[in-house]
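pinning this so it doesn't scroll away 📌
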Amino acid sequence: MTQKHTFHIHGMHCHSCVLMIESELGDLSHVSHVKSSLRQCSLEIIGDFGNKSPEQIAEELSQPLKKHGYAISIDKHIKKTKWTDFKIAVPIALAFAVFFVILQKLGIVNLVNAENVTYGTAFIIGIIASLSTCMAVVGGLVLSMSATFAKEGDKVKPQLMFHIGRLLSFFLLGGVIGAIGAAFTLNTSATFILGLIIAIVMLVLGVNLLDVFHWTKKLQPAMPKFIAKHAQGVSKLNHTLTPVLVGIATFFLPCGFTQSMQLYTLTTGSFMSGGLTMFAFALGTLPVLVLISFSSFSIHNSSKAGIFFKTAGLIVIMFALFNLINSLAVIGFIPPLFNF
């Protein structure tokens, strides 16, 4: 007999979580409808659960989600912020800032130039993105694809095709976005507005990583759900070119970091600059995605996850504020504050 239940979900952080949860539970044979809400951290599900109690159903549904760091219950979970994590996170973030100022002076990476996000900066943002909750859905895609091909005894080749396809597609699609920006010939005001949007998106992403102000989750931009679902569905195909298609599909998944870099490439006005920026970003995500490909690596299940995410959040907020302050300086709204 078909039943409808509403549960609470613990562990949701962004729109990627919505996609991941709906995909995992939607694959269950006895489930006919799944809808999750990031704003309410809730789950509406319809299926044939027999004579099981709501508690038993919640436990059953939690099983396929545990590997992604989610849990389902009938009671709303009141999450307590671990402020003690900041005692370690703040010094690490400050040390990171000092390190990058040194690199800035050496000319290795330009962290605080509002007119140009260098490839080094894009690479670092890629590293942070790969370890954030926003990339959980990409990790899920990799694991899903790995499982599909592993059944046929092919473990290495699909992974190589995925990562090569991902890097090449980020370069080509990033280049297309850069070329589109050239067609619009953005003036100083338009570039500033776009830069302001990027700074705000990054600020929201950073605050979300702190996991302190939960209302900011709903402010995070997301790829239209139907596009993201089609992109994720590619991983379920069983075809020689599937790994390459999955790599291309990750460009369209709901990761705020990816979207902020896509917005930036629009301001480059160049196919090559846009392509290399997105390539550097994708290259930054490569080490962690390779770890996921060949292991069960997950930062979310670590006992130090809270410290890591708060550190990453502070660093992302630093990126956002530096770019915001320097964007305001470029248009003459405020005097330059950073002279390296």
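📌 and the second one:
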Amino acid sequence: MSTPSTAPDYAKALERALDGVHAAPTETVALEAAVGRVLRQSIIADRDLPPCDRSRMDGYALRADELVAGAALPVVDEVRAGDPGMNEVPPGSCVMIATGAPLPPGLDAVIEHERSDRSDPVRFELDSIKAGRSVHRRGSDARAGTVLCEAGVRLQAHHVGLLATVGCAHPEVARRIRVGVISSGDELLPVTARPEAHQIREGNAPMIAAALESMGAQVIHRAHVPDEPGATAQALKRGLEACDLLVTIGGISAGDHDHIRPQLEALGVDWQVAGARIKPGKPVHVGRWQEDTLVSCLPGNPVSALVCAHLFCRPLIAAVCGRRDDPAWALRRLREPVTADPVRRAFRPARLEADGRLVVPAWRGSGDLAHLADCTGIVEIGPATEDGLRDDRDDNDDREHRYLDWRTP
């Protein structure tokens, strides 16, 4: 395991973690099951959008150059949405038209009902209009063959609408990455248990499993192991054989009862990352088993576990699925100063306020799960020593900091 002085910074640790990651296979799914999956094909317009000139509102379609002061135009027909259209309208007349209905040939403008007397012949409040008024022109949204959405996005509701619009009933997506979550510790009890003062209910595993699901993974395996090497080895082997990514919580430090790391090594796991110069989360490990199975070992303290899940598991899942829009870091400013760690890059849970500023709540270390209640994501606070230059001030200037919102899909 790396010492604090030799452990890589986050950027280098993540680079090592992602090195050699293989993409998951592609599969097709029904459109109604596509939300949350990562698209592996481009969404391409199969025809002009819209496919014809159509009305933007309920009203009257006419020729713009035929509207003059005092004009009264006969209403010769009505066109509804879904109608196939009609023959050319005689000069000097108009048609009643519904929102979304196709404009008859030769007509080039629409006047809303509210600007008319709704009679027949109809008179308008306007003396003149320009061609194109309230008309949604053919191909104005996209021309046939236009790429509407590139592969690599995690599909949301509006993407499903696009897929349906272009007739893609079974999109190609990445197979969901199968994840196992194994927690350890003799002090942990089931959620429904009544713990004694020396015991705690198991909160880490449900939290991390929920976080992994929100990242697009499929948690297929859950286990809790006592601080005993034999049981730990058996549980780890089952998880490695069943999953694409095995995530462990706790048991990776150097204590006599920390068995996760040594048992994984005995099973043949090779480490790409064996500790990182970050706070919290210094003991984090990332490795491979038999080339294709990823292993991510998170620290046992709850804040460390959740932060490291977002810092390492989230980009690992994105890489395997071929997702190109995650993790999405944004630049934000702090509301109040935060003291930087002397040498480690800090990733502190924070709350995004309505004005776009971040509030970093006070905490009592990485075991303080309670302070996460109102947090919305993680803010990165650089170390006080950057590039060998010492800065003893609080990180209280008005510069921007990287922020990852963990509420985003």
